Amino acid sequence: MTNSTVKDSVKAVTTALTTHSATPQLDAELLVAHVLEQDRGWLVAHPDHALTPTQLLRVNDLLGKRQSGIPLAYLTGVKEFYGRPFIVTPDVLIPRPDSESIIETAIKVLKKNLQPKILEIGTGSGCLAITLAAELPAATVVATDVSAAAIAVAQQNATALGVANRVTFRVQDLLKGEVGHYDLLVANLPYVPTHWLTDENKKQFHLVNEPHVALHGGDDGMDVFTPFFKQFAAHPTSDQLILEHGDEQSASVKKLIDRFLPHATCTVIHDLTGRERGWQIQL
């Protein structure tokens, strides 16, 4: 690409991404804005601004990576979730709008609690734990993950978003060693079945470079859910539990709930498109 102005660069990148992205113009604007260290509004206001040769090379490099299937958020290093910017790296899953229904459900569950204590299992970037801390200013949150690298990213986000004093992060494998009791437990466990993790599917569903440990749920997607429920049933850490799961897994998760928590009251959680994407469980 040799186009030197903002307008021409955005147009050229948009064209180049037409067959590689469902949102080629948005991707193009965000890539060019990232290289120029500006926002999209600045691009609109400065369409004739000339990119330097170095900036053009950088745009071309990012364009090639985007065409190869690498998600936009890994190229820009940031993804918005619930109206806040989160730092993302290949050490963490990219926050997705689907998970915002988990936030809405949690807020409703805790609306009468003046100083809620929350535990999150599988925090990744910290988007759920940090958002809950930000939306519930009196809340304290403990957020865990099996990945130390993910915890490091989450800590950066907590500091950047001003809630580091109320969110404690630690490396932990599910509920092993957990001794606290909380007003709410939120869990976003790996749930992608093995057959979904082909190179073709990863590219189609924007999973390229996302951490395998945070995605892979075994043959049926339930490999991590089963030990989680077993641990929780042996030592319940909360009377309220919110779980996210994948498409078409609602029945599978419900079977585990019935097996390990037979007396629990359960409510389906729908995402923004109406799909069943989680369970609210009350003991």
Q: Count the helices. How many? A: 12
Poorly predicted parts: none
Structural class: alpha/beta
Question: What is the count of β-strands?
Answer: 9
CATH superfamily label of the largest domain:
Vaccinia Virus protein VP39
Give, in order, the helices and strands: HHHHHEEHEHEHEEHHHEHEE
**Major sheet summary line:** 7 strands, mixed
**Amount of beta strand:** 15-25%
How would you characterize this protein structure?
The chain is α/β, with parallel strands linked by helices and 283 residues long. The chain has two domains: 6-68, Helicase, Ruva Protein, domain 3, CATH 1.10.8.10; 91-282, Vaccinia Virus protein VP39 (Rossmann fold, 3-Layer(aba) Sandwich). Helices cover 40% and strands 17% of the residues. The chain has twelve helices and nine strands. It has helices at 6-16, 24-36, 40-45, 53-67, 72-76, 100-109, 127-135, 148-160, 199-204, 212-215, 225-234, 250-260; strands spanning 78-81, 84-87, 117-121, 140-145, 167-171, 184-188, 240-244, 265-270, 276-282. The strands form two sheets. A seven-stranded mixed beta sheet has the order 5-4-3-6-7-9-8, with helices on both faces. Strand 8 and strand 9 (276-282) form a beta hairpin. Helix 1 packs across helix 2 and helix 6 packs across helix 7. The longest helix has 15 residues, at 53-67. It is elongated and about 65 Å long. The chain starts with 5 loop residues before the first helix and ends with a strand. The model has no long low-confidence stretch (mean pLDDT 94).
